[in-house]
Amino acid sequence: MKNIDSKSHVTGKSIYLDDIPTRQGTLYAAVFSSPIAHGWIESIDFAQAFAMPGVVQIISHKDIPGENQIGGIFPDEELLAKKELHFQGQPIAVVIADTEQQAFDARKKIILKFTERKAIVDAREAQAQNSLIMPPRTFRKGDTKNAWKDCTYIFEGRAKSNGQEHLYLETQGAYAYPLENGNIKIHSSTQSPTAVQRTTAQVLNIGMHHIEVDVQRLGGGFGGKEDQATPWAVMAALGVQVLNKPVKLVLNRIDDMRMTGKRHPYDSDYKIGLSKDLKILAFEATMYQNAGAAADLSPAILGRSLFHSTNSYFIPNTKVTAYSCKTNLPPNTAFRGFGGPQGMFVIESALAHAARELKIPTYKIQHKNLLKTGDELPYGQKIEGGILLQIWKNLVQKFDLQSIENQIDTFNKSNTHFKKGFSLMPVTFGISFTKTPMNQARALVHIYSDGSIGISTGAIEMGQGVNTKLLQVAAQVFSVSANKIKLESTNTTRVANTSPTAASTGADLNGKALEMACNALLARLKTSAGKSFGVSPDDISIQDEIIYQNGIATSMNWTQLIDQAFLERVNLTENAHYATPVIHYDMSIEKGIPFAYHVYGLALTEVTVDCLRGTYEIDTVKIVHDFGKSMNPTIDFGQVEGALVQGIGWMTMEEIRYNDQGRLLSGTLSTYKIPDIYSVPKEIIINAAQSEGTDFAILKSKAVGEPPLMYGIGTYFAINQAVMAFNPKAKLSADAPFTVEKVLMGLYAADHPDR
Ligand code: MTE
Ligand code: LUZ
Ligand code: MOS
Fold first, then answer.
1. Closest-lying ligand to the alpha carbon of 223?
2. Is residue 133 assigned to a domain?
3. How is residue 150 annotated by DSSP?
4. Same domain, 409 and 453
5. Do 518 and 427 belong together in one domain?
6. Are residues 296 and 413 in the same domain?
7. Is residue 9 part of a domain?
8. Using N-to-C axis directions, what is the helix angle for 298-307 and 340-358, rounded to 10°?
9. Which one of 83, 240, 379, 456 is at 20 to 30 Å from 368 when CA atoms are compared?
10. Domain that holds residue 48
11. 669 and 631 co-located in one domain
């Protein structure tokens, strides 16, 4: 089935926040923010700004009737700064005017006097000064201290990965307007309508029942709207409360890049020990996460870095500690993979380091240590349905790894100025929110009296195709055609207390709730049909909108059955609740079963480096991915391709830069480069692994949103191989992204023999 949005997307008819017709009298807001990364406000003068044409109101912390607080995990972040300033771009005031341009013009006239302090922008420096978001967390398994003496080889090093700008096509924004009696409706481009509702209620000092949040779809979220869509919606709602007028607040690209957090940069130390036959015996790491100026989702992201710190390998002795370091940057936040990619980059760097020293291909070590069914992970969960070895074999045979290796070898021997490299990147990614209580969802299904169906869930459509999958679930359970079913917008009055659509669980959690609701309705309908044929409900089935009795078609169709059931006063509406069974986690010992299941996969990447220019091309990425039993291969292959390219961007060209004063230097699309058609792999081949799926995945179709992003890590190490083929002495410490400049410096590093 095609994505149900494809037609309206291509014809430009899909409705995003900015396409919602505005109401008469709508006002526009622009956010005035801190020009310094650290210090405090001495005075602020709105008089000149207020006198500008069209200005209606300037809202500051003083206008907040409730709590001036937006922190989701810890209450450590003000909506509008009162005195202390913690990062450049921190919101201080909201200018509301008749037009957007007037709001922007007036914003420039605000006079802020401040005292500036030295900013901390580096995670290690923050840790050294004990500037932490929370105490460090450590995952332990076995006894690394004792294991080192058994190791034949021990390598120590450092691995750094940089942040990443989400660059959703649709920037952050919200449109709020008053309903009657102090109620407010908010349209928000958010992955978490409940967070918007809850935080707005807290800030405005009213009950959540006064706030209705509605989301049609997002022009991309990628984690950037899991937590950080909230403040803009709250500001718009605050404007509504103060003025009783509709208020629209949409960030322009530059404000969005400056004011919002990104993927967390990590700086890590590692130590890895191997036996003579290349078994990993011990692994230790210390990770320094650059959290920015407030917690946001950093603690949970730090957790996932720990969960995935051994990636796809069985390691009997591990000790990994992670610090969430508080710096004077915008609070960093969820980004596809949610700390997992950063954790995996460290162990992959350690393996590449070991391989380089041992003068063997990295895959020899990777393959030797792959997880198998029954292996216990450092957090206590055992691998179930472990198909990594099978996936590995599948890929190696299908694409003939041996001949690829030989070809690359021959190429490198016969070319001086072009070198090729390749890498393998296995991925094992846990599916579930690591915070167990978040793994719940609800669905509301109406069968209308004409037999058509309306579905509401807590899932947010952000381009990943969750609505199409949900529609498929209902179509399959009822066996009715897709054109009878409509996916409603996501609305807090229809489905309440939702978790964000995140952690790749959108289809699983909401799909399971939906499946339950549909099954409950189906049971009622079978009872009704059974009654009219004088048989048991178990003898009734529905196939393509025809009612069957003991496998034989009757003269009754779906529409007639619904009509009959309605006349019999059967309830044609159902609401169901799903909570992932089995999972649990105890943070005090860092053990449990946090994940419903794991997704597995493997990518083979080949690159060619131009050794005069430092430029490179990705020749091919060949993937074997565990989809379970995919319910929509078109959508799922699209997710793999998109995630892969996003991962490659993070690892190669996307370079976030802040200066020592905490100013974002890569704050525009001329200074921050994401992959385009010229930089994507020349070939991407995706193969589905032969996998049974799992009952915890909706219709055994495994979650696919985030795991493939980590295939992009393979590109980093393929480039590394190519650089070393040119300059065998280049001892490159892992430092992503591998920009063309870094490649060039690696090629001609000081210890190059030709220099
Ligand atoms: N795909 C598109 N097109 N746009 C997005 O914003 N977000 C990703 C992934 N795929 C995203 C996407 C992220 S970060 C997650 S967690 C999942 O989709 C969320 O959706 P799901 O849970 O339905 O897979
Ligand atoms: N969000 C979250 C996530 O709150 N918890 C998670 O475990 C998670 N994992 C991936 C992406 N978002
Ligand atoms: Mo995705 S980072 O879980 O929104």
1. 3
2. no
3. G
4. no
5. no
6. yes
7. no
8. 40
9. 379
10. 25-117+172-250
11. yes
Cα of 223 vs centre of ligand 3, distance in Å, is: 4
Assess whether the C-beta atom of 502 lies below 6 angstroms from ligand 3: yes
DSSP string, 571-591: --EEEEEEE-SS-EEETTTTE
Predicted confidence at residue 750, as pLDDT, reads 66
Residue 261 lies in a domain: no
Please give the pLDDT value at position 730. Answer: 82
Residue 557 lies in a domain: yes
- Distance, in Å, from the CA atom of 699 to the CA atom of 139, rounded to the nearest integer, reads 33
Give start and end residues of each alpha helix (H) in 415-505: 466-478
How many Å apart are CA 46 and CA 749, to the nearest integer?
Answer: 54
Enumerate residues 6+ apart whose C-beta is below 8 A from 312.
366, 370, 371, 388, 426, 427, 428, 600
In this structure, which long-range contacts are made by residues 670-674, counting pairs with CB atoms below 8 Å and at least 24 apart in sequence? 672/165, 672/167, 672/257, 674/165, 674/167, 674/649
User: Is the preceding omega at residue 737 within 30 degrees of 0, hence cis?
Assistant: yes
Nearest Cα residue to atom 8 of ligand 2: 503
Same domain? For 527 and 601 the reply is no
The two three-digit tokens of residue 595, written as one number = 């994940």
Last residue of a domain, one of 511, 545, 579: 579
Low-confidence stretches of the chain (pLDDT < 50) are: 752-755
Total-model pTM = 0.98
Nearest CA to ligand 2 atom 6: 433
Tokens of 489: 């917008």
User: Do residues 344 and 311 make contact, with C-beta atoms less than 8 angstroms apart?
Assistant: yes
Instruction: Write the DSSP string, 216-230.
Output: ---S--TTTTTSTTH
Does residue 334's CB lie within 6 angstroms of at least one atom of ligand 3?
yes
Q: Please give the pLDDT value at position 240.
A: 98
In the prediction, which pLDDT does 733 show?
85
503 ligand 3 Cβ < 6 A: yes
Domain count, the chain: 3
Which listed ligand is nearest to 594 at the C-alpha? Answer: 2
Q: Is 706 a catalytic residue?
A: yes
**Letter string b/e over residues 28-40, b meaning 16 or more CB atoms within 10 A of that residue's CB:** bbbbbbbbbbbbe
Which CATH number do you get for residue 492? Answer: 3.30.365.10
Cα–Cα distance list, 692 to 118, 423, 581, 695 (Å): 56, 27, 19, 9
Which residue is it, tokens 């209308």? Answer: 448
206 and 75 together in one domain: yes
The last residue of one of the domains, among 544, 560, 579, is: 579
d(CA 508, CA 492): 19
Q: What is the pLDDT of residue 751?
A: 58
Contact present, 253 and 260 (Cβ < 8 Å): no
Q: Are residues 568 and 677 in the same domain?
A: no
Token pair recorded at residue 270: 């590692």
Per-residue model confidence as pLDDT tens digits over 82-108: 999 999 999 999 999 999 999 999 999
DSSP 8-state secondary structure symbol assigned to residue 696 = T
Measured CA to CA, the distance from residue 431 to residue 249 in angstroms comes to 34
Atom 3 of ligand 2, nearest CA residue: 503
